Each structure stands twice: as structure tokens, then as C-alpha cells.
Amino acid sequence: MNALEVRDLSFAYGARQALHEVSFSLAPGGFAALLGPNGAGKSTLIALLTRLYDLQSGDIRVGGHSLRDAPRAALTQLGVVFQQSTLDLDLSVEQNLRYHAALHGLSRRQTDLRVAAELARQALTERRREKVRELNGGHRRRVEIARALLHEPRLLLLDEASVGLDPASRLALNQHVRRLCLEQGISVLWTTHLLDEVQPDDALMILHQGRLVASGQVDALIQAQGGDLGSVFARLTRPAPTGAVA
Amino acid sequence: MNAYWQCLRGIVLREWLRFVLQRTRFLSALVRPLLWLLVFAAGFRAALGISVIEPYDTYIPYEVYIIPGLACMILLFNGMQGSLSMVYDREMGSMRVLLTSPLPRTFLLCSKLLATALISLLQVYGFLAIAWVYGVQPPAMGLLIALPALLLVALMLSALGLLLSNAIRQLENFAGVMNFVIFPLFFLSSALYPLWKMRDSSEWLYWLCAINPFTHAVELVRFALYERFAGLALAVCLGLTVLFAVLAVLTFNPQHAALRKKG
């Protein structure tokens, strides 16, 4: 069963079509990158995946559960790190995590166990009583990842999670998430507009003007299109609309 | 069921922690009603004599009269401010986190409204404590009886705030809410003057005040504070709370806010 399946997803802001029949799937335990220039429709897709917006047409299935028909089961399988920090800055690391555990209905005992486990995994145990405001950008992101994994989702969604980080923290975060993917067997959907965050054996989707213009393994795409990832991306996301490849 | 309880507990606890950590927010919420009580009421004391009216047993100074109205004013400001921030940018981040909870959106929104209302009650009782020291001392039992009345009013006003924020495009900032919602609701009510005084001035203004939900909120609290039962006010507040909450939940949709921005 796929960790994520997006089927014929379309969405419009009034007369402006933001997504046109986007379809793709994500295998369990895989790392997939979603690339797209600004305005490609990534934010709209994330808003739909996280239930911020209601589906207009098409469907999204997380771990086999439809977001339309069984939102509770679907959201239980989903962990999210948003582009902009959504932590309470004046609350401690642990208080932020406990709030999230409560939102997922975890019991006190489960919460104690899960918070301790995720803090340890993110090497944040020592800092659990510190206010989030006192942490640097890289550590805040780690808190958000710990939070997103508290309820043990099968799919982790990171929306431009490396924005605002210095190059070293950006690389560390990327490697950290890949390790999680390998060690925990969770699937990761990583949206970005930075090509150096993508590796040759990653699954890749390229979104442009609301359409999925490419989908497949990075190596295979480069082989099929010629050049390197940069030139493939530039070709597929030229201002004039291109036909869907996937 | 346990998941719902844990979730509600977590939402209330978060509001409590934010409240405790942001003491300036608490203090600034008290400044407004205290100015009315200590300055406005002192100035108008001579001009606005209050005759014996229900629920009071005797002549009362003006400060005593306006206490329920000022308590409700705290709830009005907090309700509007809290609800507006649920819809617009400032708290959009935390709303996104809230909405990733697998529990039903209706439950999440109602929990959030309840949490905001409970924190507002702390501010109201902080204000009542200062008023007590100042010399306005309702019966101790009245302060206890007023608790559910104040909670109901807080919920009604928060739900109204959320409904208005969902529905009206012009209410994108707090200045708009002040001018078009808070001031009309507050001044066209029995918060600052008994309605018979208004009737002396203008019949149609009197009727506007009489049908204003905020008048019923103030009267419910006023009667409760003096251990009296206000059946009509309770029925109006209960009915409107349910109506506003249902409509607010039905019309809550963050994509409407996004559409407004993009449009």
C-alpha cells in the first residue's frame, strides 16, 4: 500500500486554477522530493494534504485512507513540518511537544514515552525545558520534526523545511531526515525549490503552473531529458506551459 | 472519548501557559475596564444618578451599576480579538497545527473557543477583585453564581466573533472590529446606562438597545452577581450561543481567508 496517493487533484481560487489534475504516489519508506518554482502550486498542495483547505476535486489517500472519506484515519498517519515555524516560542520544547501529543489524543502515559523517545532521537533531551525562543533555527526545526513524529505517522511531510537555515544546518537537516527514512521506514515528502537538496536516487516530482510536469527517479529523469537536474528543471519550468510528462 | 478529553485538556492548557507567560497581555486587558471604572465612572457619578432598579435593592452609585457591563466588555474584547486571530495571519501557524489533529474540526474549534473563554474568565475575576478592593462589593455568593453566566457570555461573544470574522471581509483588522462591532454592541446596550434612561432620549435607540444581544449578556451577569435569575436574558444568551457557534463552525474555512488575500 502506498504511503501517499494523490489522484486527479484540482483546486481553484475562484477563477484562478492553482492545481490541474495532479496525480502521484509515494512508496512506503521512500524519500521523495517535490520541486517547483514559486507559484507552482506547492503551497496549495500542502494546504490540501494537511486539511487546511477542503478538497474540491480528486482525492488524497494517506496510508490507504482517504482524506475525503476518512480524514481521522488519514491524519493519524501524517506528520507535518510547515514552512513557517508553528511552534509557540514562549513555551518550552517539552510543552510544545505535549500540546501536539494532546491534539492527537495520546494518553499521558503514551505522551511521556513518546516525548522522551523523540527528544532523545533528535538529541534534544538536555534542552527540553528551554523556551523555543532560545533555540537556533536548526534546533527549532528539530523540535518540529520531533513534534511531527510524536504520533508515529507513516508519512512525514516537510514543506520547504530548510528555508532560513544556513548551508551547514540545511545539509544537516536533509541528512537527518534521510536517516529517519532509512532507520524508521517512514516515507518522506520533501518540498523545496533548492536543487542541491535532491539526490540521484530520490523520487522526484516537478510542479509547474499547477501541473505535474515530471515524475520519476531523478537519475531516470536526467537520462530521459538529457543534461543535469538544473537544466531539466529549467526546461520544464519555463514560463510557457509545457505538457505533462508523468 | 479519552482522545477528545486529552485534546481539550491540551488546548486549554496551552492557552493557560500562554496566558501565564504573557503577563503584559493580562495587565493590558485590565487597563481598559479599570480606566472606565476609576476615571469615567468617577467623572460621571454626579451626572448619572441611578434610581432603584432590578436587581438592586436600593440606590446604587454609578460604579456599582457599570461593573457587570465592564466585566462583559473584557469578554467582548477578548472574544473578538481571539476569534479574529483564529482566522487571520497572526495565529495562522498555530491554527494549522490545530487543524492537523485527526479529531473533528468542529470539536477543535469549540475547544479553542472554550479555552479562550476560560482564560477570559480569569481576567474578569482579576478585574472584579480590583473592583472589590475599590469598594464595589457584590455578594460573595453572587460572584460564584455569576461564573456560569460569565462563561456563557464569553462563549457567545467568542462564537459571534468567529462568525463575523468568517463572514465579513472588511473585518480584517482590529480597528474595523472596534468601530463596527465592539463600539456599537457596547454603547447600544445597558452596560453604561439603564435602558429607561435611553428611552427618555430616544424610543428607537431604546429598541436597538433592547434587542442587542450584549444587553442581554450584561443583564444576565448583573442579575447573577446579585443572586437573581434573569430568565429572558439566559434564554437569549443560550439560544444565541448555540446559533452563533453552529454558524461559526459551518462557515469556518481558512481557504476563504486565502481567497480574500489572493483575490
Automatic annotation (TrEMBL), chain A:
Residues 4-234 form the ABC transporter domain. Keywords: ATP-binding, Nodulation, Nucleotide-binding, Transport. GO terms for molecular function: ATP binding; ATP hydrolysis activity. SMART domains: AAA. Signal peptide: none annotated. Gene3D superfamilies: P-loop containing nucleotide triphosphate hydrolases. This is ATP-binding cassette domain-containing protein. It comes from Pseudomonas veronii.
TrEMBL record, chain B:
GO terms for cellular component: ATP-binding cassette (ABC) transporter complex. It is a multi-pass membrane protein. Keywords: Cell membrane, Membrane, Transmembrane, Transmembrane helix, Transport. The chain crosses the membrane at residues 34-53, 65-88, 109-134, 140-164, 176-196, 229-252. PROSITE patterns: ABC_TM2. Residues 24-255 form the ABC transmembrane type-2 domain. The keyword Transmembrane applies. The keyword Cell membrane applies. Its main location: membrane. Pfam families: ABC2_membrane. It is found in: Cell inner membrane; Membrane. GO terms for molecular function: ABC-type transporter activity. It comes from the Bacteria. NCBIfam families: phenyl_ABC_PedC. Belongs to the ABC-2 integral membrane protein family. This is Transport permease protein. It comes from Pseudomonas simiae.
